[in-house]
Design a protein that fits this description.
With 378 residues, the protein is α+β, with helices and mostly antiparallel strands. It has two domains: 231 residues, 4-Layer Sandwich (Metallo-beta-lactamase, Chain A), CATH 3.60.15.10; 64 residues, no CATH class. It is 33% helix and 17% strand. A six-stranded mixed beta sheet has the order 3-4-5-6-7-8, with helices on one face. β5 and β6 form a beta hairpin.
Length: 378
């Protein structure tokens, strides 16, 4: 018993000390000032020799060594590492894309930091020396949009995206998605801001979404026709994908991943499957996932298989009255054992799916499928 208590104490001590292990020059002016999650508010940190609150740091900017990959005639993308965000990858673990318009690059997700966006744009200007006047965001997870403020501050870019970013990160009104008198003066930290070294996260601020939409919307920006498609609650609280009909390209972010197991920590299985149907309803030749390197017409195959099996096997477990504590042993999804992050993420996906599907009533969905089949027969 004493050994267990000692081990527990050491683990807690390590967790508490983590923010400071590799940042010995950081001091905490007000160590009692925590955000709502119990994390030190990063904007109160300062470095010796610099002005209080400074984020300049001592070291040169992190070099992300970014190399854009051409997906189609007008679409180029940066592909992130197949792992979770760490100090070692500086948050470069998701995919972001740039669409070449007539007078501007259009950024689809700007990555994990100001510095990432700055270096990505420098790489894109070597292909076409254009500004970025429009940024479009897929969903609220911060590995996809923390580069936004580089574009708002340096190029006065307009940010399109989900209301959930403003509401959940900046404290905007949940009904209007707009700032009000209760908007937080100091936004809460995100996992990237907590995790990354100062020379990677330096300059990063939470930029609000300027243009939000209630439903799927078609528009033309910088000469590019596009459809911003709302799929709602799928991988996160509010997911969108971007369809370029003339290019036959669809940028889907995290509603599709390949080469690795998806993280469904904030998502729902039924929503994911509905989002995949919406993607498959478009005519495309190239699909860029939120994580993964496959972009051809097989790009969504793994995701369709994973969520279909997850739903069906968890429902079988519920029907067999498997206790929730044992559902991760009953549903193992062996087909994905060799994929990256399988051991880290798949058990959690199974358990959360059990919670979701325990009260699931699929009768309406099955009735609709039967009606469609009857119509086809007629």
């Amino acid at each position: 018993m004493k050994v267990k208590l000692i081990i527990l104490f050491l683990i807690l001590a390590f967790v508490v000390s983590m923010p400071f292990i590799f940042n010995k020059s950081i001091v905490v002016a007000e160590p009692n000032k925590l955000d709502v999650d119990g994390n030190f508010i990063v904007y109160d940190w300062h470095h010796e020799g610099f002005k209080e609150g400074s984020r300049t740091g001592r070291n040169p900017e992190w070099d992300y060594n970014l190399k854009p990959v051409q997906v189609s005639d007008r679409v180029w993308c940066f592909f992130g590492a197949m792992e979770m965000p760490t100090k070692e990858n500086a948050g470069d673990m998701s995919n972001s894309c740039y669409i070449q318009g007539d007078d501007s690059w259009i950024a689809w997700d700007t990555g994990p930091s100001y510095i990432f966006a700055k270096q990505a744009h420098a790489a894109m200007r070597k292909i076409a020396d254009l500004p970025v006047k429009t940024v479009i965001v897929s969903h609220e997870h911060d590995d996809h949009w923390l580069g936004n403020n580089y574009y708002t501050e340096t190029q006065n870019a307009v940010i399109y995206g989900p209301k959930s970013i403003n509401v959940n990160y900046l404290g905007f009104d949940e009904h209007t998605g707009k700032a009000n008198e209760n908007t937080r003066e100091i936004p809460p930290q995100t996992r990237m801001i907590r995790a990354l070294y100062q020379n990677a996260i330096r300059g990063t601020k939470l930029a609000p979404i300027e243009k939000t939409f209630d439903d799927t919307t078609e528009f033309t920006l910088h000469g590019i026709k596009m459809e911003y498609v709302k799929v709602g609650y799928a991988h996160s609280e509010e997911d969108w994908f971007l369809y370029l009909p003339e290019d036959k390209v669809v940028l889907v972010a995290d509603v599709v991943m390949n080469g690795r197991v998806t993280s469904n920590r904030d998502g729902i299985v039924i929503g994911q499957l509905e989002a995949l149907k919406a993607i498959q309803a478009r005519d495309w030749n190239h699909l860029v996932p939120g994580h993964g390197f496959i972009t051809d017409q097989t790009a969504d195959d793994e995701c369709v298989q994973y969520f279909s099996l997850l739903k069906n096997r968890v429902l079988e477990g519920i029907e067999d009255e498997i206790d929730p504590d044992y559902i991760t042993k009953y549903v193992t999804l062996e087909e994905f054992r060799e994929k990256d992050l399988y051991y880290l993420l798949s058990p959690g996906n199974v358990f959360r799916s059990y919670e979701e599907l325990e009260m699931y009533d699929g009768d309406d969905e099955e009735d609709e499928d039967e009606e469609d089949e009857d119509e086809d027969e007629e």
